Each structure stands twice: as C-alpha cells, then as structure tokens.
Amino acid sequence: GIGEGCYIDGNLSNACFNGPSGVAILQLGSDTLVLVSEVGNHVVRYINVISLQVGTLAGSGYVGFADGEARAAMFNHPIALATSPDNSIVLIADGFNHRVRSFNVSNMSISTLAGDGGAGFQDGIGTDAKFNFPSALSFFGDGTKVAVTDMYNNKIRIITLDSKLVTTLPIVSSSGYSPDFVYPAGISIRAGNALLLVSPLHN
C-alpha cells in the first residue's frame, strides 16, 4: 500500500486500501492469497504472496447489499474474514448489513449464510436469524461450525454450516461464573474448542 486511503489494484507497492480491517489466508491452487476486508471500500481484496499483486476478490466497491457473482456483490462495512479449514469458503462479517456472508471458492459467488439484514437479536435458521453488527469470526477445528462475535448484542453466536442454524453460546467459566461481554470485537477458536475473545472495554 501507499499509505493513503483509496482504491487501486495492481503491484503491491502502488496499490492502496481504505480501512483494511480483517485478514485471512486462502490457498487457491498453487497461489497463497492474503485476503483483506476493507470497510472503507466495502470490498474484499487479496494480496498474492508470490507475485505481490493486489486484486479484488469480492465486492463492487459500492456500499449496499447484493448476493451473486463475487465482483458484483455489495457489502456494507465488511469487517472480518475467516477461511474454512478445507479452503472451500470464506466467511465475511458484513457489519452494517448485519449478516454473515459466504464466498464460494469453486464458483466465485457470494451468498448470505445468516442474518436478515436488520439489526436485532434472534436465533433461527439462516435469514430468520438476526445480528447487530457481526464483528469477527472463527471456525471450529472440524469446519462444521463458526463462532461469531455479535458486537452490539454483546453475545457470541454459533452458526452450524450445513443447517445454517444460528444459536447463542452460553458461556460459563470453570468457576461457574457467567461473564458479560461488552462489545466483543475479536474471536479465535483454539485446540479443544477453547475460545479466545477480545472485549475492548474490558481491557
């Protein structure tokens, strides 16, 4: 990048970004791509670590909502990314669309995994569920579920991929204490399904 907020693909030294916020790795054939979600340009970009070329993986560059062919899709503040263990999909936390979107690697398309687009709180299947600014994602080790930080609901949500069922994770510490989360902003699933969480207001 060149250190200025703009939207230019091409050689890494000349490319520029606007609000890069989330990073994931995608192995695409022999290419290793660093994926970057961009809240300012409302797109998902990639950096090819071999050729050092920057391109756009998904998003038209216009704010809005549209599924379909990846480059024609529209996002509103895509803030975080997670690649499935088998590299078949990339999930996108589409913050102000209050949805979790899915990039299908095989056909280069975007679909909605969960969320109806309105801010709220509701468990359910797929677009019957509601989020209030999904802000981070992490796959469980077997790739069948993903954990989502639901920032303004102060909750951790779980999506089962095959059924698209969205549930809310009841978290109890080893001492029996049920912690509260204030604006959970980051999550990582570790060995044994242990959750690491970032809750900025808890320092």
Q: What would CATH call the architecture?
A: 6 Propeller
The class by helix and strand makeup works out as mainly beta
Number of strands: 17
Q: Which superfamily, in CATH terms, is the homologous superfamily? A: TolB, C-terminal domain
Tell me the series of helices and strands, N- to C-terminal.
Answer: EEEEEEEEEEEEEEEEE
Could you list the spans in which at least 5 consecutive residues all have pLDDT below 50? none
The overall pLDDT, averaged over residues, is 91
The largest β sheet comes out as: 5 strands, antiparallel
Q: What would you call the shape?
A: globular
- Report strand %: 35-45%
Q: What would your notes on this structure say?
A:
The chain has a single domain (10-202), classed as 6 Propeller (Neuraminidase), CATH 2.120.10. Strand 16 and strand 17 form a beta hairpin. It has no helices and 17 strands. By secondary structure, the protein is mainly beta. 0% of the residues lie in helices and 44% in strands. A five-stranded antiparallel β-sheet has the order 1-5-4-3-2, with no helix packed on it. Strands 6-10-9-8-7 form a five-stranded antiparallel β-sheet, with no helix packed on it.
Question: Outline of this structure?
Answer:
The protein has 203 residues and is mainly beta. The chain has no helices and 17 strands. InterPro entries: 6-blade_b-propeller_TolB-like.
What does the secondary structure layout of this molecule look like, with pairings?
Elements: E1 10-11, E2 20-28, E3 31-38, E4 43-48, E5 53-58, E6 68-69, E7 78-83, E8 89-94, E9 99-104, E10 109-114, E11 124-125, E12 134-139, E13 145-150, E14 155-160, E15 165-168, E16 186-189, E17 195-198
Antiparallel strand pairs: 1-5, 2-3, 3-4, 4-5, 6-10, 7-8, 8-9, 9-10, 11-15, 12-13, 13-14, 14-15, 16-17
